[in-house]
Amino acid sequence: MIGYVECECFIYDAASLKDKRAVLQRISSRIKQKFNVSIAEIDYQDTWQRTKFGIVAITSNRVFTEKELNNALSLIDSFPEIERTVTSFEWF
Question: How far is CA 62 from CA 11, 30, 35, 67, 74, in A?
């Protein structure tokens, strides 16, 4: 089962693209270390207070896929400098 999540986020404390990249790098590396998912910034690369992540997980069972994706989203929510707004799931 392939699960795909798109989530838009706001980064309130970013005053430049450099600040934004530092936050995104910290989040992406932590998610890649802890969970069996792939994550990338897929939109708003030139906007310094907004981003959109694409997260993909592939497992043999939908329950495990959904659990991995929800754990990754929970980790994003645990960072105080970023707020997740619009989130959508797709299944293949």
Answer: 31, 23, 16, 8, 18
Phi, psi of 85 (to 5 degrees): -115, -80
In the block, tokens 């981003």 appear at: 51
pLDDT digits (tens, 9 = 90+) for 39-75: 999 999 999 899 999 999 999 999 999 999 999 999 9
Residue 47 structure tokens = 């906007």
Sorting pLDDT into bands at 50, 70 and 90, what band is 13?
confident
DSSP string, 21-54: HHHHHHHHHHHHHHSS-EEEEEE-TT-TTEEEEE
CA 66 – CA 51 distance, rounded (Å): 22
Angstrom distance (rounded) from CA 60 to CA 45: 33
